[in-house]
Amino acid sequence: xxxxxxxLLGTIILVxxxxxxxxxxxxxxxxxxxxxxxxxxxxxxTFNLFFLLVVNPLAALLLLSSRLAxxxxxxxxxxxxxxxxxxxxxxxxxxxxxxxLMGWALxxxxxxxxxxxxxxxxxxxxxxxxxxxxxxxxxxxxALSISLxxxxxxxxxxxxxxxxxxxxxxxxxxxxxxxxxxxxYGEQFAGYQHKVRKLIPFVY
Length: 204
What we know:
Elements: H1 6-28, H2 39-64, H3 68-71, H4 81-109, H5 138-154, H6 157-185, H7 187-195
Helix pairs in contact: 1-2, 1-4, 2-5, 2-6, 4-5, 5-6, 6-7
């Protein structure tokens, strides 16, 4: 690591994960979700749970025990100290921002929360408040931010590959989810879809 001590990064990861679990439980009434739906929906949501509840805690424990470098054989070779500082700082910003965005989205959704890709229930209302004013899929954007942030913090090409897998899966799932939202909410969703960007405010 160029900027942060391993023990500090491990502690940050565990604190953010713990806070997210509490926020999700309080905001939605559930902590763990059983993946349901077609193969794509189940695969993406299983991948998401594995990343958040296995990969992140494992990375934290390896950092706390100073063993990440021995377990991860494909670390980024950053020679220039300034480049390492930039990568680490960008990683920290992305990682923390991802958790903040995910928590904000969960609080905004409340009882409307469902795992990604599932059709809205009859009692659900279309949510266009909070982070949904800025992007249509803040939960997916936050997962991407967390995964890219972790790759930069740990300087791991392996975790960078996880980010790219995440990106492909999410880009495959979004059209399915949006078709279901359009079926449920019709012109209301079509108008929202036209005005608000998908994953990055004002960009994409």
